[in-house]
Amino acid sequence: MGFIPTEESRRQEIEEFKRMVVACAGLSRRKDEEEQLGFHLRSPEIDDDVGEEKIVCVTSGVSFLGLAVVNRLLVRGYAVRILVDNQGEEGRRRLGSNNNGVVEAVVASLFQVETLAEAFNGCRGVFHTAAFADPAGLSGYTKSMGEIEVKAAENVVEACSRTSSVRSCVLTSSLLACIWRDSTLQDYPCVINHESWSEETFCRDKRLWYALGKLRAEKAAWRIAKEKGVKLATICPGLITGPEFFDRNPTSTVAYLKGAQEMFADGLLATVDVMKLAEAQACVFEGMKKTAGGRYICYDNVIESEETAEKLAEEVGMSAERICGNRGAYIPAPFQLSNRKLSNLMSRTLRSCYNQR
User: Fold this and answer.
1) Confidence band of 29 (pLDDT split at 50, 70, 90)
2) β-strands 336-337, 191-192: how paired?
3) What average pLDDT does the chain have?
4) pLDDT at residue 348 in the model
5) Which residues touch 187 (CB under 8 Å, ≥6 apart)?
6) pLDDT digits over 269-312, tens only?
7) How far apart are CA 84 and CA 104, in angstroms?
8) Rounded to whole angstroms, how far apart are CA atoms 80 and 106?
9) What's the pLDDT tens digit per position in 35-46?
10) Rounded CA gap, 149 and 342, in Å?
11) Burial class (CB in 10 A: 0-12, 13-18, 19+), 127
12) 340: which residues sit within 8 A by CB, 6+ positions away?
């Protein structure tokens, strides 16, 4: 999650990132991480025309999701470049290195295409993980944030097109860009998958600004990608969770859960662990060397019972009624989520890993 930061928040994020780099420095952790994920990781093949270092760039690399993505990429043997949007600093800083990869920070603004293109130059891929939140907003995400997010997404894809090195871009959208529509007006498919899109008018009428911002930013990214010939994939995750997720990612959590009662009632309130989402991002990126692309829905748990809904409410410090509502007896949800496209891709990756062992 990116936001309009204070100097103190910037300092804290950089310090957390440095701690993460140090924590990643030991190769002995790799086996433990593989066991936690439930499958084996593999370092990607090094293309002959790249040399030994494979460089990728992660926007908002010191955020909750960005840190996880950087971690996954390091384990897979990539050299990672992160963007630092701090005009008080200049040049590049090498934050750390290990036997898996190297991390460096590059100053660039998401709102200046020229600086983005310079930062992306030499990278084989870009992971756009940044989102925007207004700490002064009641929900953490105001209407104006959507416009900012759209512009950033456009600039990132445009900057990718201006480099000769970037071959793929993976953009983090949201499941909210897929699920919101007025189902009372017409018949909709009961399955929500990667082909589903939320309705802009419905989001605007219901003041679902976070959903609208993600929806419009993703559509803008696809428009620029088609115009400029950029190979793009978008991942639409459920509510991102993980250790202390609310304390580390409060603004996007609160913004995501606006409309939680309706999502829960419709069977569309889903979560995803941040490390599993990061692994999915890496798998999609590597799959793009072949046939992978398009949109992917990503979640690992659908909140279906009041018990799990109450547990989620407790974790984020809100009343259970704000998620469960007044629902009494169990009523079958009218919709069903499907992440089959992503599951199939990751299953192929898993089989490839085992075949190489």
Assistant:
1) very low
2) parallel
3) 81
4) 80
5) none
6) 999 999 999 999 999 999 999 999 999 999 999 999 999 999 99
7) 10
8) 10
9) 433 333 333 333
10) 25
11) buried
12) 193
Provide CB contacts within 8 A for 281, sequence distance 6+: 69, 72, 127, 170, 172, 235
Beta bridge partners of 170: 127, 233
Other C-beta atoms within 10 Å of 289: how many? 15
How far is Cα 70 from Cα 50, in angstroms, rounded to an integer?
A: 20
Catalytic residues: 214
- CA dist 241 and 98 (Å) reads 27
| Residue 269 CB coordination number (10 Å) | 29
The tokens 């309130």 sit on which residue? 269
Nearest Cα to Cα of residue 268 among 333, 212, 326: 333
Longest dimension (CA), the chain: 61
In eight-state DSSP terms, residue 43 is P
Q: Which tokens hold the place of 71? A: 């971690």
Q: H or E element: which one contains 337?
A: strand 336-337
| In the predicted structure, residue 356 carries a pLDDT above the cut 70 | no
d(Cα 199, Cα 201) in Å, to the nearest integer? 6
pLDDT on residue 185? 65
Q: What pLDDT digit, counting tens, does each position of 190-215 carry?
A: 899 999 999 999 999 999 999 999 99
Q: At what angle do helices 209-228 and 143-161 cross, to 10 degrees?
A: 20
Query: For residues 105 and 139, what is the distance between their CA atoms, to the nearest angstrom?
Result: 30
Residue 282 structure tokens:
């890496």
| Tokens found for residue 240 | 């991102």
- Structure-token pair, residue 105: 């920070």
Q: Find tokens 């590049």 and name the residue.
A: 92
> Three-state SS for 244?
coil
> Whole-model pTM?
0.82
